[in-house]
From TrEMBL:
InterPro entries for the chain: Transthyretin-like, Transthyretin-like_sf
Record's protein name: TransThyretin-Related family domain
Organism (species): Caenorhabditis elegans
Key word rRNA processing present: no
Pfam families for this protein: TTR-52
Domain of life of the source: Eukaryota
Amino acid sequence: MELQILFVLFFPLAFSFRDQIVGVRGKLSCNNRLLAGATVRLIEKNYIGPDVILAENKTDYQGSYVVIGTGRGVLEMSVFLRIFHDCDDKVIPCQRTVSLRVPSTYISRGTTVNNYFEAGTMNMAFRYPDEQRSCTDRIFS
Ligand SMILES: *[C@@H]1O[C@H](CO)[C@@H](O)[C@H](O)[C@H]1NC(C)=O
């Protein structure tokens, strides 16, 4: 009897810890050339605790990329696409980096991506408002 009550109370909670998935694809350019070898990362930002790297990939020789991130949780993930690149960057060991929020409607339940966020072609010569520099990424990962 008690066990049944416990099951009824906690089963919905356990069930709500479902798989979540998000897929982003696009292409990077730098002025008038394709930007190969740039790092693209999907990051989950949480209110508490450190950010979580969900997935990472690099742009291919045509500047194209696909990144698919998966996670589990009751709450919907807050996901950012973070790009590291050397377009118009003269400081050799460091990279320019910018984080862009993926619209929450593209974070879905399940284990396959049915609805990719199409980021399109982005010219990374653009100076984004919240751009930063990363000098550790290339050295340590
Ligand atoms: C990484 O990006 C390449 C180029 O778009 C793609 O072919 C490959 O499937 C991607 N790898 C992963 C693990 O998503």
